[in-house]
Amino acid sequence: MAAKTYNNFTVSRPQEWIAHVEINRPEKLNAFTEEMWTTLPTVFDDLSEDPTVRAIVFSGAGEKAFSAGLDLAAASVPGSFFNPEPEDVADAARFAARVRRFAYKFQDCVSSIERCEKPVICVLHGVSIGMAIDISVCADLRICTSDVSFSVKEVDVGIASDVSTLTRLPKVVGSYAWVKDVCLTARTFGAEEALRVGFVNSIFPSKATAVQEAMRVAGVMASKSPVAIQAIKEFLDWSRDHDVATGLKYTAVYNAAAVNTKDVPTAMAALRARKVPRFEKL
Question: CA-CA distance, 282 to 162, in Å (whole number)?
Answer without folding.
Answer: 34
